[in-house]
Amino acid sequence: MGMSVTISTAEHTDAEKILKLQYLCYQGEAELYGDYSIEPLTQTLDELRAELAEGVVLVARLGQEVVGSVRGAVDDDGTARIGKLIVHPRLQRHGLGGRLLAALEGRLAEEAEAKRYRLFTGHRSQVNLRMYRKLGYEQVGAAEPVTRRLSLVYMEKPAAAEHPVPSLAATA
Q1: Is 123 a member of any domain?
Q2: Whose CB has fewer CB within 10 Å in the chain, the N or C terminal residue?
Q3: Region 100-106: what's the mean pLDDT?
Q4: What is the mean pLDDT of residues 46-66?
Q5: 145: helix, coil or strand?
Q6: CATH code, domain with 62
């Protein structure tokens, strides 16, 4: 391929690309739970644009193509709520999700003084659960039922006192 993946702050003009990638990436989750009405598949472009304006949204690019993204914002109590970590299916299992998550954690620690990071995934999403555990996240509390088929597993890890901020210009 010859190109490197770069991670940077999402631009307002990336919203449609992120939404299309999100739709692609969450098909497997919808199939796993037998529910195509999950929020990532029903989110509107306006709702995504609001998230771009309110929190930190990072994208991974391969050339001009958006191939990954993650979002986060810090609450008043210092909890960074991380969501919608997505990587294009053809680039999964190469560490890009971990790089996106580390870059977001660094930004939220530096810019918003995050004290802890919190995220969630579905109880059957074993690949996600393994990755988050590998990256230092631990389950907090019992899984919370959402529907008959889906329970959410919340995971958390403390922010390091001296959190190195990965360069957003880093390449794969």
Answers
A1: no
A2: N
A3: 96
A4: 94
A5: strand
A6: 3.40.630.30
Count: domains in the chain = 1
Give CA–CA dist 153/141, Å, rounded.
8
Q: If residue 86 lies in a helix (H) or strand (E), which one and from where to where?
A: strand 79-87
pTM of the model as a whole: 0.89
Residues 95/128, Cβ–Cβ less than 8 Å: no
Residue 96 is assigned to a structural domain of this protein = yes
In sequence order, the 6+-apart residues with CB closer than 8 A to the CB of 45 are 15, 16, 19
* Residue 91 tokens, joined: 């680039």
Give CA–CA dist 47/82, Å, rounded: 16
Report the C-alpha gap between 77 and 119 in whole angstroms. 15
Parallel/antiparallel/unpaired status of strands 79-87 and 65-74: antiparallel
Does residue 60 form part of some domain? yes
Is 120 part of a structural domain of the chain?
no
Instruction: Show the domain range for 84.
Output: 5-115
Q: Which residue has the higher pLDDT, 169 or 77?
A: 77
Q: What radius of gyration do the chain's Cα atoms show?
A: 15
> Residue 112's pLDDT band (boundaries 50, 70, 90)?
confident
